[in-house]
Structures are given as structure tokens and as C-alpha cells.
Amino acid sequence: MIGAGPAGLSAAVEAAEAGMRVAVFDENAGPGGQLFKQIHKFFGSRDQNAMIRGFQIGRNLLARAEAAGVEVFLNAPVMGIYKNHEVLVKIEDESVHFKGDNIIIAAGAAEVMVPFCGWDLPGVMGAGAAQTLMNRHGVLPGRKVLLVGSGNVGLIVGLQLLQAGCELVAVLDAAPRVGGYGVHAAKIARTGVPFLTSTTILEAKGDGKVEKAVIRKVDSRFQVIPGTERELDVDTILMAVGLSPMTQLASCAGCDVEYSDQTGRLSCITVTDEFCETTVAGIYCCGDFRMETAEGASSAILQGQIAASHIAEQAGYITGEECGARIAKCQETLRQMSGGMFSVKNKGRVDPTETDEGYPISRSLLERGYIAEEELQNYPAASYEAEGVHPVIECVQNIPCNPCRDMCARKCILVNGDITNIPLVDQTKKCVGCGLCVANCPGQSIFLIDKTSIPDYAAVSIPYEFLPLPEEGQKGTGLDRSGAPVCDALVMSVKTSPAMDKTAVLTMKVPLKYADSVRFFKAEGGAE
Q1: Does 336 have pLDDT greater than 90?
Q2: Same domain, yes or no: 19 and 59
Q3: What stretches of 377-425 adopt beta strand conformation (E)?
Q4: 150/93 same-domain check
């Protein structure tokens, strides 16, 4: 096994638990790949790690690997793969040869960088590097940050910058629409960060380090529009413009590779079959290393399980029937997770008009990162009204996630059919206001509204993941979906519990007329 990330570890666990002897090599000092810098809750279904933070998924995989007897070699870069499945590994000061019956390459992907004037100044870095600094080493990448790229990686890192105390000046994208999930963008937008679509970076300026960024609008053909230049005062520019699969070892082993532009740029990928096996028998590739769209750790874990199950069946450790059932389950989950608005077939589209259910697409969400209030009526769960406390769900794109359905003990929330379907509220069920759906929604797109319990006021409950937590009685300002201040707000309660896993449910009192507008709380002063 080459690579101790989510794909490599899941494959190692699957193979070892079937009774096979497994060794994993990784060039890093610690196992887990990207998982241990991912502090956000994962999307997907409950049986595929939804609602669990990345680093905890990594811990779980490592514990299972250790219990299954997997040997993990760290600081052990693989230098080449040769005939007869021989692998050359550098361990300390020695070059060591290993030979296996099968090899799984799960080498991951590298960040793509786009050159521009001044891109070599200190302060320009990949978003993944910034995430490593923050979440692995506790170091801020900068104070005033410009984020270039609005895909899921960039949006996730953008929120984590805010949580770490950085000022996120803007999110920039040359495309005319936000590239990642709208729920990720909305988390950032409601704090007041602007999204600048159809805008590109021209230059980084500074005396020995980044001090300013020069940006400019682009037209529909991505040509800069003269006279639209702006300068932003920033000390850091983060590039989140995509990932490129690392295919070097597969090429070294003689595996066929091909070029694809389905990621939005020409990328080299390894040719594999439905079991992740390459054109060289006994060599498999899985994870972001294999996938054209770099779909993330959840998909990588499933691919690792598919590859290991196929190997175990071929070697006689599990039956063909057992192997078929495991692989079919993984492939069905992959099918659902790779569907919806962000599927390969929709990659790069700028003209979607309707969701799978026939609801109008939120143009504001695509272009500005938040749903316009006048669009809410298009979505039953986002405009739901009821007596007393009730959920309002502002998840309005077809994305692969459904744990909200399973978290509600009263079954108030429905996700019918495929995992990518938009959630609905069951109007026959009564919400008790426990807040578990609010805290555990990975997209932080569920809110509890109560317009009837306090005369002339409403209670609005929101997910909150910033420190220090506000206190009961603390005054502040209620911000709308764009981050604009709309009214005074008073904290009524801040709920936390182990079941909420570090996401607090903050309930604030706001004037009744702003109940459908306020979606974030900005603290001002102390408790009343």
C-alpha cells in the first residue's frame, strides 16, 4: 500500500481484516493524509462518516488498522515500482526493496498553482498549505487573506481561516459562479465576506512580501476588462484553484495514463477498471490520485474498500459472493455521492436553471454565495412556517448529504430517494427544538425559528463554531445571509453537548420582522 491517506488506510484495513498481510508506506511523518487537517464535518450518509470531522475519521481508521495488524512505515517515500511488484522504499538512510502480491497506489493529489505577476512573493501559497499550518501546527498563514478559488477546498479553508481569527478580505473566482457547494459559500457569506465572481488576480505587490493584491473583472471568455482594476490590502494570497493527481509512480510501473479536461484543466489520470485495477495486473490506484474530479476523502475511502475487496477475493480470502456484495454497496454509494448538481456531467456548467426536483436554481447563491430573501419562497423547506419552534432548511442544491433526516428523532425532516435530493419538512410532525439537526448539519444550513412564543419578537437558532462562545444575555447584531447588519440581537441561550460535537446552537432574540432575515450573530460587548 503506497499512501497512508483515507484511500490507503481504508484499503489496508479492508485487506487486513480479511486476513491478508499488509504494509503501508508513506513519505510523511504522520499517517492519515489530509484527514488530520480536516476539522469540518463530512457530508454523505451516516454509514459513510457523515457528520464526523475529518481528523476523527483518521483516528478511527488508524485504530482499525492497528487492531488488524497493518504495518505502517512513515518517513518512507517510495522511489519506484519495478517488475514483479517490487517496490523501492527509502527508510532512514537505506534503500529497501519490498515485494508484494498486489500493490495499491493511493498517492493523492498536488495543489495546482496559477502563475501571475508576483506569485513568488512570500505570502502566496496553496490553500492546503494554509490549512496544514493552521490545523496541524497552530500557525496562522496571515492576518488579511485573499482567497483565490471558490471550489469546496477553498470554501472549507476560507471558513477555517475565519475560525482561526484571520480576516478574509474576499473570495475571488474567474468563473461567473461559485464553484463549490452553496452551503459552504453561505457559511462564509453570512459573516460578511464578499464573493467576487468573474474576477481574476493580476498581481501581488509588496516589498519582499505580499502587501497588496491587484484584481480585475473578466468577461465571459475570461478576458480581462480594462478599467476594472482594484487593489486590496492583504498580506496573504491563498490559491485554491484545483488539484492534480500524482501519477508518477503509476507511470513508473508501466500503467497506462490518459489526459482529461473534466476537472476544468488538462490533467493526467491513471486508467483503471471498475475495481480500481490498472492496466498492469495486480496494481491498483484509488483516491484523489485516481479520480478525475478529486471528490474527497469519503469517495477515496470507498475506492480503497473496492480495491482491497477485489484483491482479497482474487487471493481467496473472501468468497466471490461476499466480494460482490461489498463492491456493489460501495459502488452504489459512490454513484449517489457523485450525482447531483456537482456531478462530472455538470462540471463547469454555468447555465443550470432547475434542481432535480424542478425548483428554480438560486442565482444569488451561485453568483454571490448566499440565497436572496426573495428566492426563499421557491423552496418549501426554506420558507416553511409553523406554530412554535420549527426547522427552516436552506439547503437548496442537489448535493450528496442526508444526515439531517436521521438526526431528527421526531422524523420532521425528509430526504426522499437519492442522497442528493433536497431536504423537506414533514408538516405532520412536531419539532421539539432540540437543535440536533442544526448542530449536526455539515452544511450548517438548518435553522430553528419560533415566531409565536415571544410577543413582537422571534427566537432564531443558528449553528455557531467560533470562539469564544457568546454568553447568555450578551448583546450583539443580527446579520443577514450576506453578512449585512439588520437589527439588534440578544443571546437567549448557547447549547452544547457531546452529540453536537463542538458545534454550538446559539439562540438569539430578534424583532419579529427580521426572523426570516437574521442568520448570524456578531457579538458586541458583554453579558447583560
Answers
A1: no
A2: yes
A3: 389-393, 413-414, 424-425
A4: no
Sorted by sequence, the CB contacts under 8 Å of residue 417 that are 6+ apart come out as none
| Residue 354: inside a domain | no
Cβ–Cβ < 8 Å for 304, 333: no
Residue 1, domain member (yes or no) = no
Question: CA-to-CA distance for 337 and 298, rounded, in angstroms?
Answer: 9
Instruction: Give Cβ neighbours of residue 281 (< 8 Å, ≥ 6 apart).
Output: none
Residues 6+ apart with CB under 8 A from 445: 183, 186, 393, 394, 395
- Torsion angle in degrees (nearest 10) through CA of 392, 395, 401, 402: 20
Identify whether the C-beta of residue 462 lies closer than 8 Å to the C-beta of residue 200.
Answer: no
Predicted local distance difference test score (pLDDT) of residue 184: 97
Judged against a pLDDT cut of 80, whether residue 527 lies above it is answered with no
197 and 264 share one domain: no
Tell me the CATH number at 144: 3.50.50.60
Rounded-to-integer distance, Cα 63 and Cα 79, Å: 28
Domain that includes residue 445, residue range: 369-527
**pTM for this model (two decimals):** 0.93
Same domain, 377 and 487: yes
pLDDT in tens, 408-447: 989 999 999 889 999 999 999 999 999 999 999 999 999 9
Q: Is residue 51 left, alpha or beta, with left meaning phi > 0 and alpha meaning psi from -120 to 50?
A: left
Average pLDDT over residues 496-521: 97
Same domain, 235 and 247: no
d(CA 16, CA 64): 10
Structural contact between residues 336 and 398, judged by C-beta atoms closer than 8 angstroms: no
pLDDT for position 265: 57
Per-state percent for the chain, helix, strand, coil, to nearest 5: 25, 30, 45
> Confidence class of residue 524 from pLDDT cuts 50, 70 and 90?
confident
Query: Do 173 and 212 fall within a single domain?
Result: yes
Question: Do residues 375 and 505 share a domain?
Answer: yes
Task: With respect to residue 479, please indicate whether it lies within any of the assigned structural domains.
Answer: yes
CA-to-CA distance for 452 and 130, rounded, in angstroms? 45
Cell of 337: 455521492
- Residue 337 dihedral angles phi and psi, to the nearest 5°: -70, -25
| Backbone phi and psi for residue 388, each to the nearest 5 degrees, phi listed first | 70, -160
- Identify whether 344 is part of a domain: no
Co-location of 383 and 493 in the same domain: yes
Q: What phi and psi values does residue 404 have, to the nearest 5 degrees?
A: -60, -35
For the cut 70, the answer to whether the pLDDT of residue 262 exceeds it is no
When pLDDT is averaged across residues 255-263 and rounded to a whole number, the result is 76
Instruction: Please state the domain count of the chain.
Output: 3
